[in-house]
Hints:
Elements: E1 2-6, E2 27-28, E3 31-32, H1 33-41, E4 45-49, E5 65-66, E6 71-72, E7 75-79, E8 82-84, E9 96-100, E10 103-109, E11 114-115, E12 124-126, E13 129-131, H2 137-153, E14 166-168, E15 174-176, E16 180-181, E17 186-188, E18 194-196, E19 201-202, E20 206-209, E21 212-214, E22 219-220, E23 223-226, E24 229-230, E25 235-236, E26 240-241, E27 244-245, E28 250-251, E29 257-258, E30 261-262, E31 267-268, E32 273-274, E33 285-288, E34 291-294, E35 302-304, E36 309-310, E37 315-316, E38 320-322, E39 327-328, E40 337-338, E41 342-343, E42 348-349, H3 352-362, H4 372-389
Helix pairs in contact: 3-4
Amino acid sequence: MELYLLEPEPGPAWLPFCDARPVCELRAGAWLIRERWEAVSECDATAVFGPAHLAAFGEEGVPPVRPRCAVRGPALVGRSEFAPSGVPPAVGSTPGRLVHEGHTVGWWVPEGAVWDGPSEEGPAIEIEGLLLAGAHDLLSALEHFLPPDVADFTRERGDGIPDGCTVIGDPSDVVLLGAEVEPGVVFDVRQGAVVVEQGAYVVSGSRLEGPLYVGPGSQILGDAIRASAIGPRCRVRGEVAASVFLGYANKAHFGFVGHSVIGRWVNLGAGTTTSDLKNTYGPVRLRLPSGPVETERQFLGSLIGDHVKTAIGTQLDTGTVVGVGAHLFGGLRPPKYVAAFAFGDTGQRLTREAFLTVAGRVLPRRGVAVTDRVREFLGAVYDHAVAGKA
């Protein structure tokens, strides 16, 4: 069987992330949405049907992004804005729709059949999971998926807890998988397990509160980190609560980040702080160029796109959306919507060549080579984002 993922049309609901990556490459709990589809289909994804500006997207492990085409069975076609869970769907010998709470979220294509596009026809096959309305729902996904995700890891045989560390709760809920942990780390697992993956490093003085997932090669550099999913190769210091780090991000200094989604290759300057609760304790509204978006969430910090850089002391209001590649400086409090590639409070935009130059300096610091294909992709991201906001 083959697996194909169908991207939603790029639009305001998935800003700021859809400018730079497929929706299926966003993190829903400990795992990417693509990885969740691969788990329930029991096979690796063959391709992602996505927009043209993502055609050169090529992160490790990601299938090619290409235009939608006919699919011959046996195959599963899943919507990228749906994060599946549980057991594989009970498919049969005839074509069918994967359905969750009355919504069609995928299609089963048996051998000999052909899928040529989304359809509401055919028998319904129920599937468990969570349908996401937009980027802010990645935080709902975190709350929904993270506790069972990290609990699954407790079935594995992890490393012993180093001498000098403190565990509050059941020590079997601390899962260290080839990570290095200094003495003086506190693990609080009363609310969920703590998982630290291969090659990660946790320094003395860190307090890790479950449910928590720390991805491969990430560094936890001190303070309290709780109820979060931190992707690969991140550096995190300071208080972090209920947040998602997609990977390769740098928050190496103090400052609070709460109920936020941090894109890849983001650098948060010292003292960068997010507000995640309004003074009125009311629901948070996003302010996008297309109009306001009611999130129905009481707690929502910032949605920060890939390659964003913030200056020291940056203060982000509740529900701030920062577009891909923006550089925040010159004012303590940016507006609640920052356009892609905004250059401080100058009213100007980072140039294409400047963006490529900065990326060429940053990516090798995490061992990622800036090849011609990478430059092609980053250029396409810039051109798409700028064309859409000119």
